[in-house]
Amino acid sequence: MIHKTFDNRTPAIISPENYRSGKKLADTCILTFSCEVRDNALEQFPAQKAGALNSVNGPVPIYVMPYKGRNVAFFMCPITAPVAAMSLEEASQLLGATNFIMFGSCGVLDSDIAQGKLIVPTHAYRDEGVSYHYRPADTSYIPIPTSDFIAQTFEEMGLPHVQGRTWTTDAFYRETRGNMEARRAEGCIAVEMECAALQAVCDFRGYKYYPFLISSDLLDSPQWDRRILGNDDERTHQLKTFYVALELAAKL
Q1: What is the pLDDT of residues 101-133, one digit of tens each?
Q2: CB atoms within 10 A of CB 1
Q3: Domains located in the chain, CATH noted
């Protein structure tokens, strides 16, 4: 059975330590999925390129910038669990970072959640493959230990938000109505493609993971409702949310 692939008895043949720089460039790294967020950050802050994640798809530059007395790293993370997990693993070795803040858009499973609202995951449903290589298949949901800290920080900042479970899936075009209703019945309010995997990686490596999401499209409707997905409103929310991530980083 494929979910029996977790192996903590023998060493990995290929290790992210191959990317270790030996430098401590930043304790905290922000993962954004938006090229516009990345470009705006480069325009607004004195960021310096610290290195890159290299593959046949081309390099993914990683930047470090000063913010409120500390260095904070950021990069545009590729979407989907496998590539995001590899990127986090390699970035941790390049930077020496142990705190990872991730934000991005998500679909919502509750029509009462307004578009653009911040969502703080409490648990992530493991409908992907990566997490089963980083922890046993003993539970369908991975808890997000930092959820209450993030929510409290948002309270202090006066940011409207909602906490709840999220559904992490590998199959964007197989988010069926039956699966959506099953996840919603279990308390999921959002669907995305990375949270369960990145939490599993961070748990395995002893890192801290701080995810939050932006309500974008809606699955809880007779037909799929795009809402703000891909439009200027979504981009505005994404750009503003980078500053939220920076304030969160300043507290770590």
Answers
A1: 999 999 999 999 999 999 999 999 999 999 999
A2: 5
A3: 24-238 (3.40.50.1580)
